[in-house]
Design goal:
Layout lengths: L1 H34 L9 H18 L1 H18 L2 H7 L4 H4 L1 H38 L3 E6 L2 E8 L2 E10 L5 E10 L5 E13 L2 E11 L11 E8 L5 H9 L9 H11 L4 H11 L1 H16 L8 H27 L5 H23 L3
Antiparallel strand pairs: 1-2, 2-3, 3-4, 4-5, 5-6, 6-7
Helix pairs in contact: 1-2, 1-3, 1-6, 2-6, 3-10, 3-11, 6-10, 9-12, 10-11, 10-12, 11-12
Amino acid sequence: MILHLYFARRFAMSFLLITAVLFILVALTGLLEETRRSFADTVTFRDLVTLTLLDTPQKINLILPLNMVLATVVLFLSMARSSEMVITRASGRSALHTLVSPVVVAFIIGLMVVGMFNPIVAATSKRYEQLSDQFASGGGSALSISDEGLWLRQGTSEGQTVIRAWRSNNDGSVLYDVTFISYAPDGGPIRRIEANSAALGPEGWKLKDAKSWPLETGVNSEGNAQRYATLTIPSTLTLDRIRDSFGKAGAISIYNLPTFIRQLEMSGFSPRRHKVWLQSELARPLFLIAMVLVASAFTMRHTRSGGTGVAVLTAVLLGFGLYFIRSFAQILGENGQIPVLLAAWAPPVAAIMLAMGLLLHREDG
């Protein structure tokens, strides 16, 4: 038991060290990228640092499997150089028995990432997108989906417009039973428009069968209302920006994803991307375990055997390969080429089986 706790502590320390180093590197690289953006000259350095700190947790979350591979490599190489692995083998412990502690720690880290770090990443990612959009466009836009329908907000220097629709087509390019409320720069409403449908095109929103009411003070709204067979309203929104607003599942906490998926289905959007992301997050602890097993299969050896550099490089490249396969499976799942559960759970399970095969082949345990 004492030896298990020792291995667990060493592995946890290696993981924290690697994560801290990568956090600093990612933050510095992110700050350099922010200074090159188009709005960098119009904001303060403090704003750029804020954007960098908000974006860094999302990047760390993406490279977490690499952190696990590097932490495993650091652990077993340090133990091999100090001959601790030789002593452990001499005491009668097999390779699989030695891996129990790192695997348990990796599983606990995976649970903490899903249950605690995921909401933090979702909150920082959402705030990062809001600030970036605000700095880039000057007006800002937002999308929200609830039981009351789909809500959009577009803004320019001339004021804000709030858009509400009961439902939409799959890609968000056409809204149905839609209402537009325009606000002046000082915040007061100036016009309300209702239409059967609104299609987003290069010129803006094209409304069909629309009715417009003026909302200025002292004006009879119903008496001055006008009907239009077609009406075009300029917009700062694009289809890509609308898709990005609700398409980035990482900006939604895993605790809110089930409800958001249900709301997407009610609004007419396809929730497949979010379903794949939800299942992938639930399968993350297994994938982190697979990274530990893969890295250990090549590094649980004595340094005097030679070829340490090749073994480390092989472990890192295989980890990258498995990460690529996992990402590719998620893309296939999002596009409907394979079932959602298969896209999320097959890569980590297959990676664990591959790693176990390598361990049993290389170790006489």
